[in-house]
Each structure stands twice: as structure tokens, then as C-alpha cells.
Design goal:
- By secondary structure, this protein is an all-alpha fold.
- Helix 1 crosses helix 4, helix 2 packs antiparallel against helix 3 and helix 2 packs antiparallel against helix 4.
- It is 71% helix and 0% strand.
- The chain is built from 6 helices and no strands.
Length: 134
């Protein structure tokens, strides 16, 4: 039914491909009615501010996932019952997929609004960004 991503408490019984399809379906359903019209109204400055905000939220989510994963994994040998709700919320919630899809839409819209002068400027080789990420 593609609703499993909305139930993080039971996320362990679902596999990652079905979670991904559930989150992707939610994100795609929000695009035509909610996301794209609002992104289309923004100026280049607004797009860049939105992109920075979304990037910050995405990085914080990844840090939260790393921390909760470390916490959850440290008690894996215990006989105590474990409740991985927060861990599942940081990795299985469709909101995170929505943020990443909006980041792509904002980046594409930012390029679409380039003026002729900006299009003619020399750009940094993407290989530099690829190597810098490592």
C-alpha cells in the first residue's frame, strides 16, 4: 500500500526498497500541488536561501542518524528490549526524501534563472567538487 514509511515503529519488518518506494511516492505526490508552485515563485536569492536551509536540515538529519545508529548499535547484545523508534525516524521517514527531492528542484530552478552573463562565466570543473567531497 506504500504507507509503510509513515510507521517508523514497525520499520524493521519492511525492507529498504519498499520504504524507498513509499517515501518516493509521497514526495512525488507533493510536487505538483505543493512544492513546484512555491519554488517557481522564488527569486535566485530566495532559491539559494532555501537550498542552504534544506542542506542544513539534510546534514542535521544525517548527523542525527549517525548518532542514533551509534546509540542503538551499542546495546545490541543486551537482553533488554530495544525501541528503535528514534533511529527509524531518522532513517525511514518520508520527510527526509522530500527534502532531498526539493533540493534537486531548487538547484534546477536556480540554473534555469541564470542570466546570459552568468551562463557565459567560466565555471569550476565538477571534478574539483567530486574530489573535494572525499
Amino acid at each position: 500500500s506504500l504507507l509503510q514509511a509513515w510507521f517508523p515503529k514497525e520499520a524493521e519488518i519492511w525492507n529498504q526498497p519498499t520504504w524507498f518506494l513509499s517515501a518516493l511516492t509521497f514526495s512525488n505526490l507533493t510536487m505538483p500541488s505543493f512544492v513546484i508552485p512555491r519554488v517557481a515563485e522564488l527569486s535566485k536569492s530566495g532559491l539559494r536561501k532555501l537550498f542552504c536551509g534544506l542542506t542544513t536540515a539534510s546534514v542535521l538529519q544525517k548527523i542525527a542518524y549517525s548518532e542514533t545508529s551509534r546509540f542503538h548499535s551499542s546495546r545490541i547484545d543486551t537482553k533488554e528490549p530495544q525501541y528503535p523508534l528514534i533511529w527509524n525516524l531518522t532513517r525511514f521517514h518520508p520527510f527526509w526524501a522530500l527534502i532531498e527531492m526539493i533540493m534537486g528542484i531548487v538547484a534546477a530552478r536556480d540554473v534555469m534563472l541564470d542570466s546570459e552573463e552568468e551562463k557565459k562565466k567560466k565555471h569550476v570543473n565538477p571534478l574539483f567538487y567530486f574530489l573535494a567531497s572525499y
